[in-house]
Specification:
The complex is a heterodimer of chains A (298) and B (527).
Chain A: H1 14-45, H2 49-54, H3 67-74, H4 78-107, H5 115-127, H6 132-141, H7 148-154, H8 159-171, H9 174-182, H10 187-198, H11 200-216, H12 219-224, H13 233-250, H14 261-297
Helix pairs in contact in A: 1-14, 3-14, 4-7, 4-8, 4-11, 4-13, 8-11, 8-14, 11-14, 13-14
Chain B: E1 3-4, E2 12-13, H1 19-61, H2 66-121, H3 128-164, H4 169-205, H5 208-226, H6 228-233, H7 235-251, E3 257-258, H8 264-267, E4 269-270, H9 274-281, H10 285-303, H11 306-315, H12 320-331, H13 338-348, H14 354-367, H15 380-399, H16 401-408, H17 412-420, H18 425-450, H19 457-463, H20 469-472, H21 475-482, H22 493-524
Helix pairs in contact in B: 1-2, 1-18, 3-4, 9-22, 10-15, 11-15, 11-16, 12-15, 13-19, 16-18, 18-22, 21-22
Classes of the chains: A mainly alpha (298), B mainly alpha (527).
């Protein structure tokens, strides 16, 4: 951004021309290798498995068909997994956002008694996690196993997001709060009537953080949801991928076992990543903003 | 000393600042001044050196005689020496000034503190009789106000009873509201009068220190009562962290126990450090340590430079639209789940996958012979490179954001000055942009190095196979396999926790050290 505004009055030398051309080509190449895998996956998911295995797919589907998708939809728990993912992502965002705002607001008040100590509680957790097994035992003890609602609460708060919202609340002028207090407004009224409407940008950003994190995560879902009807999409995909990988291990030298599995995985990948790919162009600027605030604060 | 609290509350003067604290503040300001001077010198030196190189190159292209080249060199050396001497002198003068100021302030801080604290603790100069008289006066006043309050309350009760008797509901409501307003004001006035009287009395008879001591507690309680809604709002937060983050800390004890599900966390038997010795002395430990370290080393050498280099190159792109487009595209993989990315990688590297088609195609083209596809992910020697490249692919774009924002924060005047001196783009990048993002690079590098002993298991468990454990199995994946990821026999929760604890403690130590260093680097601005 900085250098864009400066006009280079010095004539560009041959070396600089070469550099510019090389640099533009490099950028195009990087953009290409970022996008092409997704395009390839999309194209393959609509192609004939045999052509995919034969390696003749490049830009367009060969023998366009939706058979792979039909097979994916036929996976016994596919639809329930999709429903679960949507529930966990949407519900998780709502629950997390509610508690994040509720936490960030008091912690943003300098006058609050014990503010430092109360903030420190989460800072400790950011630096030292208790580890997988102790957490697992607590999850099991509090009934998170195969329970979506409990799962939303068990993963409700992320310290980094609380800090982001808190920083934003702190930047809101105190005079608004004071004048509202004179009119007899309580803390809750002030939060909901003044602070939340003013903080829509950060609420959007952090909601998206929570949404993307919930949509994409698989580890604890895999551990805690043992019931096939409870697992989200990422876990279904993970099972397909690991199975594929393991089969390769067994089938070294005999590729036939893998045949046509590829296109099914590709179709599942598209199903799992599509919502992200679709919303991504519209929301990416919010993410960048959040990262910048985080970088300044951290 | 600042007044704490708004009107209507107890006003307290904070105790005087201790000399140590004042000194710390002063030292920080001094350190910043020194860093600024060093930075300025660095930039000036860079320009000098750059000019020199330019002159040399010009002399070379114009094929000037050797004497002139020698002369250029001599002039440069002279200027350099001059500049160095000047910088040294400036620095010494600055340091000397700082030292003198610190010495001086050390005394004055201490003296000021002595004066302040004496004033703070000074008992008011009143005789016992005077104090007794004041007390009697105050007590009388307090009793009077109390009586007045009781009277007001009695009157209120009576008037309310009268108002309640009213038949018309609208009129009744109105009368009650009016009464409430009237009496609330009277009561508040009474309380305020008592508070004012108390403060006036206490400030005359107590020292500031004593006054502070008496009221601090009350002030805290007042603050808690005032912000009770805010504190209540924090209950879910405390519950969440208490249950899901602090309660597991108690579970760490199973690392020192032989955990059995039947006996539970508290009932299992203590075994001391047995789990740790099992792990540290076990046959896999050297391999795990080596893999963890080497995978991190790959990431450090290949992965770390990717983002700053990309940010620098992107910065040289002139068209704003092209730049934004490239940014948008390269950030994309960050939003895609690890499972999807691993799924793509596994399939691309499969014998019938895209990478193998490319590999076979290219190799057959050159050798003109039939080539068999490779099981990339089945070969231990490939694993680390695959893992690292996948990380770079998924992360280089998004990781560049911090560097891009650091570049946009560089002072534009530096570029203007450089252009006046005739510096080209390459020179500007070398002498301004790179030094400008050096602090960011340094901090991220230090943080990266501090994570040398931790690799996340979430990605590796998707990619590795028993055949590739030799190079792919790291401490965290082993811990996972011993515990929740156990596929054969009974999981050993105690061993898994012990490994996790070992890894966590080592990482925490490294991160803490790194934090200290980066704070120092960030503040002093050595870079």
């Amino acid at each position: 951004m900085a250098l864009l505004t400066r006009k280079n009055k010095i004539k560009r030398s041959a070396g600089e021309w070469t550099f510019d051309i090389f640099n533009t080509l490099l950028m195009l190449f990087l953009a290409f290798i970022t996008l092409y895998p997704f395009w390839y996956v999309l194209v393959c998911s609509f192609s004939n498995p045999v052509s995919v295995d034969a390696g003749i797919i490049c830009w367009w589907p060969d023998a366009f068909n939706v058979n792979s998708y039909l097979e994916v939809f036929a996976i016994s728990n596919f639809w329930s997994a999709y429903r679960n993912t949507i529930f966990l992502a949407v519900g998780g965002t709502v629950v997390s956002m509610f508690f994040t705002i509720l936490t960030a607001y008091p912690l943003s008040k300098k006058r609050l008694w014990g503010r430092r100590g109360l903030t420190f509680i989460m800072i400790i957790c950011m630096n030292f996690a208790a580890g997988m097994i102790p957490r697992y035992l607590i999850f099991r003890a509090t009934g998170v196993m195969n329970n979506h609602i409990m799962f939303l609460f068990a993963f409700a708060l992320t310290p980094m997001n609380i800090i982001l919202v808190r920083a934003y609340f702190q930047s809101v002028s105190d005079s608004l709060e004071e004048s509202a207090k004179l009119d007899g407004a309580g803390d809750l009224t002030i939060l909901f009537k003044i602070y939340i409407p003013l903080s829509v940008p950060v609420i959007m950003t952090v909601s998206l953080y929570y949404f993307v994190a919930r949509w994409n995560s698989y580890f604890w879902e895999m551990i805690l949801f043992t019931d096939d009807n409870k697992v989200p999409l990422q876990v279904v995909l993970k099972n397909l991928v690991v199975e594929q990988n393991a089969k390769e291990d067994l089938a070294e030298g005999d590729g036939s076992m893998l045949k046509s599995k590829q296109t099914i995985i590709y179709a599942t990948i598209i199903c799992a990543a599509l919502p992200m790919l679709v919303i991504y162009p519209f929301v990416q600027r919010f993410f960048v903003k959040g990262i910048m605030i985080g970088a300044v604060k951290g | 000393m600042a007044i704490v609290g708004a009107s209507g509350e107890i006003r307290l003067f904070e105790p005087p600042t201790k000399p140590r604290v004042s000194m710390k503040k002063l030292k920080k300001a001094h350190e910043k001044a020194v860093a600024d001077l060093k930075f300025k010198n660095r930039i000036a030196m860079r320009f000098l050196r750059a000019d020199y190189k330019d002159d040399l190159a010009a002399a070379k292209t114009e094929k000037k005689p050797a004497e002139e080249v020698a002369k250029i060199k001599a002039v440069f050396e002279e200027n350099k020496a001059k500049m160095e001497a000047e910088f040294k002198a400036n620095l010494e003068a600055l340091l000397a000034a700082h030292k003198a100021e610190e010495e001086e302030k050390k005394v004055s801080f201490a003296e000021n503190y002595k004066v302040d604290i004496a004033l703070w603790k000074k008992e008011p100069e009143i005789s016992k009789e005077e104090a007794a008289a004041l007390k009697a006066e105050f007590d009388a006043k307090a009793a009077e106000l109390k009586a007045a309050l009781a009277k007001i309350k009695k009157e209120r009760k009576a008037e309310i009873a009268v108002a309640r008797a009213e038949k018309d509901p609208a009129a009744k409501k109105l009368a009650l509201a009016k009464l409430k307003e009237k009496y609330d004001k009277l009561i508040a006035d009474n309380r305020e009068a008592l508070r004012v009287a108390t403060e006036a009395y206490e400030r005359t008879v107590y020292s500031e220190a004593k006054y502070y001591e008496i009221h601090q507690r009350q002030k805290n309680l007042n603050a808690i009562w005032r912000d009770k809604t805010l504190l209540l709002m924090l209950i879910p937060y405390l519950l969440f962290f208490g249950v899901y983050h602090y309660a597991p800390y108690f579970g760490i004890q199973i690392a020192f126990k032989d955990y059995s599900i039947r006996k539970g966390i508290w009932g299992s038997e203590w075994v001391g450090f047995e789990n740790f010795t099992t792990f540290l002395g076990g046959p896999y430990f050297p391999r795990l340590l080596r893999n963890t370290f080497v995978i991190n080393l790959y990431g450090l050498i290949l992965g770390f430079p990717a983002s700053p280099v990309f940010a620098l190159l992107l910065n040289e792109v002139k068209s704003k639209m092209f730049k934004t487009t490239v940014q948008t595209i390269t950030y994309l993989p960050h939003f895609i789940s690890t499972v999807v990315i691993a799924g793509i990688v596994v399939n691309f590297l499969a014998p019938s996958g895209l990478m193998n088609h490319l590999y076979v195609g290219i190799k057959e083209f050159f050798t003109q012979q039939h080539v068999d596809p490779i099981y990339f992910l089945m070969k231990p020697e490939n694993f680390r490179m695959i893992y690292t490249l996948m990380g770079i692919w998924a992360g280089f774009g998004f990781g560049s954001i911090v560097y891009t924002s650091a570049i946009s924060g560089i002072d534009q005047e530096l570029y203007e000055a450089a252009k006046i001196d005739g510096a080209g783009r390459w020179r500007q990048t070398l002498s301004i942009t790179i030094p400008g993002i050096m602090p960011t690079i340094a901090i991220y590098l230090i943080m990266r190095v501090s994570h040398m002993l931790s690799v996340g298991y979430e990605t590796i468990i998707l990619l590795y196979q028993p055949v590739t454990y030799e190079t792919a199995d790291v401490i965290s994946t082993y811990s996972y396999r011993m515990g929740l990821g156990s596929t054969s026999g009974r999981p050993d929760y105690s061993l898994s926790t012990a490994i996790g604890l070992f890894n966590g403690v080592v990482s925490l130590t490294l991160v803490t050290i790194a934090n200290k260093i980066s704070r120092k680097v960030g503040d002093v601005g050595l870079w």
